[in-house]
Amino acid sequence: MMDIPIVDTHVHLWDPQAVRYPWLADVPKLNRAHLPEEYQKVTKGLPIKKMVFVQCEADFAMFREEVAWVNKQTEIDPRIEAIVAWAPLEKGEAARDDLAELKSNDLVRGIRRIIQFEEDPAFCLQADFIRGVQLLAEFDLHFEICIKGNEQFKNTLKLVRQCPDVRFLLNHIGKPFIKERRMEPWAGYLRALAAMPNTWCKISGLVNEADWEHWTTRDVQPYIEKVIETFGFDRILFGGDWPVCTLATDYQRWVTTLLRVLSTCLDEERRKLFYDNAVSFYRL
Question: 237 - beta bridge partners?
């Protein structure tokens, strides 16, 4: 039994009957409702004390409905203490009203506008998008980075440099090429990101970048260790990435794998990763 409390900073929940998720049609294994009751079952026995819901790429027109639906789920599981919502940051200054509306919800702590799925690798460098991200500082909201590939990471560094007043949290450690066992140039980009004091990194989603059927602890360990070496224990957070993680693992195995990598670390260091940093960062 794990004796350190956990904040899961990356929980996805959805009900396609309530909110549209077009991408689910292409992922049959995930194309059904994933609700708090199921999350409770798959995490049974783990000391998860608090949860952060992260937007699930709903139909863009329904980002408000997604937030409202998640609010209702807190009645089923009150451990959901924060929401990372979607917002149309590419509207630039015109996104101000959307951010004000989202901020009026006490649970909304940050915004994730996924860069990964944009065909243009320089999407995040458009003037309006940069302005939309800069606006987050006025609303005391952070930005969660979700990217894939070298060009997107390189351009994201340019984005972050232009938004010194915004806190950034890298999701899924930047999705390195674990399956190909490539460390560079990802590690170099990671160092450049960590050199900026307004950045943090979420240790989540790693196994989805490995060989889904055959990955082992040895495959992901070098990447976890590189994140710890680069960001230190004060700027890293744990994320379960359920249910997306089920494409490559079950929740319990992911936690066990991470604990195995951390076996030589101090209890204080593990507690920072699994609990303390998340409470501070998300203001739980």
Answer: 202
The Cα angle at residue 64 between residues 18 and 142, in degrees rounded to 5:
125
Q: Which numeric CATH code is attached to 6-281?
A: 3.20.20.140
How far is C-alpha 31 from the chain's CA centre?
20
- How far apart CA 85 and CA 55 sit, in angstroms, is 5
What averages of pLDDT result for each successive group of 10 residues across the chain (284 residues)? 91 98 98 98 98 98 98 98 98 98 98 97 97 98 98 98 98 97 97 98 97 97 98 98 98 97 96 98 98
Looking from the CA of 190 toward its CB, the CA atoms found within 13 Å total 28
Backbone φ and ψ of 121, nearest 5°: -65, -15
Cα–Cα distance between 194 and 178 in angstroms, integer?
20
Bridge partners of 145? 170
**C-alpha angle 134-137-141 in degrees, rounded to nearest 5:** 110
Helix (H/G/I), strand (E/B), else coil: 214: coil
**This model's pTM is above 0.85:** yes
* Alpha carbon distance 151, 189 (integer Å): 10
